[in-house]
Each structure stands twice: as structure tokens, then as C-alpha cells.
């Protein structure tokens, strides 16, 4: 019984996240959290453009609250919108940006979208980035395109704990295109980092 309730709650949480992502496709939503509180549920949205989520005079928030009650059975959802400090270092937002570009302009400009995304991420201070597109792009045969820049851990514990990764999907006429973005943020300490300590004048003598 406990296991069924756990699975049901997680499925409902997944559906809520997908619904919110689809409702605000251009708002740069990075994450959606749902927390239980004594008064109901607290829904926390992280977005690069919180104004689009809130809407004029909070109209979108009121609408979303009503929809969460009707469609997903939330009793009293309290919605909080947070602004993402640096969206160019957020793998989810950058991957969704490529998805929007592919769906709006078609697959012909996919290389430009990949390189522009990488340039934005590196200018934001990332140590390394990799963008991978897989699917029938640009022709009828499925292929994988990979572009990277900087330094990026590919295996081991650092790759799992330090590298930010997101997988998104673009639905085109030719089929489904997988979009993977990996980012090694600035300021992370890697096990193989080497620092050279210079001796002071007293130590040199």
C-alpha cells in the first residue's frame, strides 16, 4: 500500500512538471518542485523569465493554481516563482532553447543553434560544455551530432556530481530529436586540478 502511494505521488509530480513546462515553453523554466505543507502544497518554479510565468497582475499564477486543483487534485497550491541567477549556466534552460529553435525554424539551422548555445555558455564562465543532437537531422537517416568546447569530465564521480546535464526532446516533422546539454560550471574543484605554489622571498633564501 505504501509503495503504491509512493509511486502514485511521483507519477502525479512528473505529470505536474510536464504540464507546467508545456504551459510556459518560452519562460525558461529550469525546475519545478512540489512540497507538502500543513496548509496544502507549495509549488516552486525556477525561471529565467519569471514575469512571463506570473503574468499581468498575477493572472497566470491564478490560472495555474486553479488548473493544478482541477487536473491534479492539489488541495491548496501556493505558487512561488524564483528567478534563475545565470540561465546560461543552466543545462535545462539551454537545452530547451535549442528545442524551441528547432521547432520554430526547422532543422536546417541546427548547427548554428548548437554553436550559439555553446558560445553563450562559455561566455558565462563555464569551464566546459558539450551539446549532442540525435535523430533524423538534417536528412532522413538518424545521426548524432556532437559539439564541445573547454574542459569537461566524461566519466567517474566528477562527471556524475559536478557536471550539469539535461536531456530534452524536440518534436519535428522528421521525427523526434534528442537534445543533450552538459555543462561544467565555473569554480568547481576537480580531483586532477593542479595548483603551483610560488615560494616567498624568505623561503627562496
Report on this structure.
- The protein is of the alpha+beta class.
- The protein folds into two domains: about 1-85, K homology (KH) domain (GMP Synthetase, Chain A, domain 3), CATH 3.30.300.20; about 85-185, Ribosomal protein S3, C-terminal domain (Ribosomal protein S3 C-terminal domain).
- Helices cover about 40% and strands about 30% of the residues.
- It has seven helices and seven strands, in the order αββααβααββαββα.
- It has helices at about 1-25, 50-55, 60-70, 90-105, 110-125, 155-160, 200-205, and strands spanning about 30-35, 40-45, 75-85, 130-135, 145-150, 165-170, 175-185.
- Strands 5-4-7-6 form a four-stranded antiparallel beta sheet, with helices on one face. A three-stranded mixed beta sheet has the order 1-2-3.
- Helix 4 (about 90-105) packs antiparallel against helix 5 (about 110-125).
- The mean pLDDT is about 85.
Key words describing this protein structure:
205 residues, alpha+beta, Ribosomal protein S3 C-terminal domain, three-stranded mixed beta sheet, 7 helices, 7 strands
Mind describing the biggest β-sheet?
4 strands, antiparallel
Compute the separation of the termini in Å. 74 Å
CATH superfamily of the largest domain: Ribosomal protein S3, C-terminal domain
- Give the total of beta strands: 7
What do the pLDDT scores average to? 87
- CATH top level assignment of the largest domain: Alpha Beta
Q: Roughly what fraction of the amino acids lie in strands?
A: 25-35%
CATH-scheme architecture of the largest domain: 2-Layer Sandwich
| Count of spatially separate domains | 2
User: Which residues sit in consecutive blocks of at least 5 with pLDDT less than 50?
Assistant: none
CATH topology of the largest domain: Ribosomal protein S3 C-terminal domain
Number of helices: 7
Please give the radius of gyration in angstroms. Answer: 21 Å
Helices and strands, in order, run as HEEHHEHHEEHEEH
Broad shape:
globular
What proportion of the residues is helical, as a percent range?
25-40%
The structural class is alpha+beta
**Spatial order of strands in the largest sheet:** 5-4-7-6
Amino acid at each position: 500500500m505504501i509503495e503504491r502511494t509512493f509511486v502514485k505521488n511521483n507519477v502525479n509530480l512528473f505529470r505536474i512538471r510536464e504540464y507546467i513546462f508545456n504551459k510556459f515553453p518560452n519562460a525558461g523554466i529550469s525546475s519545478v518542485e512540489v512540497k507538502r505543507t500543513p496548509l496544502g502544497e507549495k509549488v516552486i518554479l525556477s525561471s529565467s523569465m519569471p514575469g512571463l510565468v506570473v503574468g499581468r497582475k498575477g493572472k497566470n499564477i491564478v490560472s495555474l493554481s486553479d488548473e493544478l486543483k482541477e487536473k491534479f487534485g492539489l488541495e491548496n497550491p501556493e505558487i512561488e516563482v524564483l528567478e534563475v541567477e545565470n540561465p546560461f549556466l543552466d543545462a535545462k534552460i539551454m537545452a530547451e532553447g535549442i528545442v524551441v529553435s528547432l521547432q520554430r525554424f526547422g532543422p536546417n539551422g541546427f548547427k548554428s543553434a548548437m554553436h550559439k548555445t555553446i558560445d553563450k555558455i562559455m561566455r558565462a564562465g563555464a569551464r566546459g560544455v558539450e551539446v549532442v543532437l540525435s535523430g533524423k537531422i538534417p536528412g532522413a537517416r538518424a545521426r548524432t551530432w556532437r559539439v564541445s568546447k573547454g574542459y569537461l569530465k566524461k566519466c567517474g564521480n566528477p562527471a556524475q556530481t559536478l557536471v550539469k546535464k539535461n536531456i530534452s526532446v524536440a518534436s519535428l516533422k522528421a521525427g523526434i530529436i534528442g537534445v543533450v546539454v552538459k555543462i561544467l560550471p565555473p569554480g568547481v574543484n576537480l580531483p586532477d586540478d593542479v595548483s603551483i605554489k610560488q615560494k616567498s622571498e624568505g623561503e627562496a633564501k
